[in-house]
Write a structure and sequence with these properties.
binds adenosine-5'-diphosphate; Nucleotidyltransferase, domain 5; coenzyme a biosynthesis; cytoplasm; alpha/beta; binds potassium ion; 7 helices; about 40% helix; about 240 residues; seven-stranded mixed beta sheet; binds the ligand CC(C)(COP(=O)(O)O)[C@@H](O)C(=O)NCCC(=O)O; 2 domains
Length: about 240
């Protein structure tokens, strides 16, 4: 099988064998041209001859149509995930026409009906979602550390482009440090506040920036880079059986 995750910044793919083991995977920036990026990957995909392609995309109809055109040339059946707020594994009262399918799949990949869970996705946006015994209680969306930095650059005169690192939440004594530490604190502080409000929810983090952010969270965090893939596998396993 070939699994695709089209996020706002990167395209992730996983090729798995008959028993679900990952035989190849990668993550690449798509620069808003995911179809062209996929075109360059088709040789590699064809070598593994997957019998099905399952896709999560938050890129919108126009780009999804282009992706479909590219995948159509492979002659391998493919299908995009559609959020199902009444799924057997997890119920959600969130507006299901709006809920991002990557967010939903990450939850589906993590959900455990015996647990209370807080699933945090650290991609182009940071999302925090609460799940109580397989019931999605809703969540929050924040701009990522990079989007926050860009908005400060573009909305102010005296804060100019810099490539500092996000490595501390202590107060800064220079503009560069104050910007990076303030932004990191805004996200870490929100996560710490949520974990304070929901003390018995297990904190699970995933996405490109999870390791940067989790270091400053004052609770044990489970880092899982397989959540979305696991969600895709659970979704298509279920659709095929029903
Ligand atoms: N301006 C930027 N500079 C450096 N890295 C960036 C920038 N914007 C995004 N990234 C990186 O892109 C990755 C996006 O994470 P990912 O989970 O793939 O998100 P998405 O699913 O939204 O594409 C992160 O690792 C982040 O560090
Ligand atoms: C919140 C998101 C932007 C996160 O996307 P990502 O950072 O993974 O690229 C995406 O899930 C999305 O566009 N969601 C729609 C809005 C919502 O979930 O309510
Ligand atoms: K994502």
């Amino acid at each position: 099988m070939l699994w695709l995750d089209l996020g706002n910044t990167r395209l992730k793919y996983w090729l798995t064998d008959d028993i679900g083991q990952i035989v190849a995977h990668d993550a690449k920036q798509h620069l808003q041209a995911p179809a062209e990026l996929l075109m360059g990957l088709t040789d590699r995909f064809e070598r593994y001859a997957p019998d099905f392609i399952g896709i999560s995309s938050v890129l919108g109809d126009d780009l999804n149509v282009k992706v479909s055109e590219t995948l159509g040339r492979l002659n391998i059946p493919f299908e995009f995930v559609h959020v199902d707020a009444a799924h057997a594994l997890m119920k959600s009262a969130y507006n299901d026409e709006q809920l991002g399918c990557d967010r939903w799949l990450q939850m589906l990949g993590a959900v455990d009906k015996k647990k209370r869970q807080c699933v945090i996705g650290c991609g182009t946006a940071v999302t925090i979602d609460l799940i109580d015994h397989a019931e999605h209680l809703g969540g929050y969306i924040f701009p990522s550390i990079y989007l926050q930095r860009e908005s400060l650059f573009s909305g102010t005169k005296q804060i100019t482009i810099s490539n500092g690192t996000f490595d501390s939440v202590g107060q800064g004594m220079t503009t560069q440090d104050a910007v990076h530490r303030g932004i990191l604190l805004s996200i870490v502080g929100a996560i710490n506040e949520i974990s304070h409000r929901y003390p018995n929810f297990e904190v699970i983090m995933t996405g490109g920036d999870a390791s940067i952010i989790s270091q400053h969270v004052n609770r044990p965090v489970r880092l899982r880079d397989d959540l979305l893939l696991n969600g895709l596998a659970r979704y298509f396993d279920h659709t095929k059986q029903s």
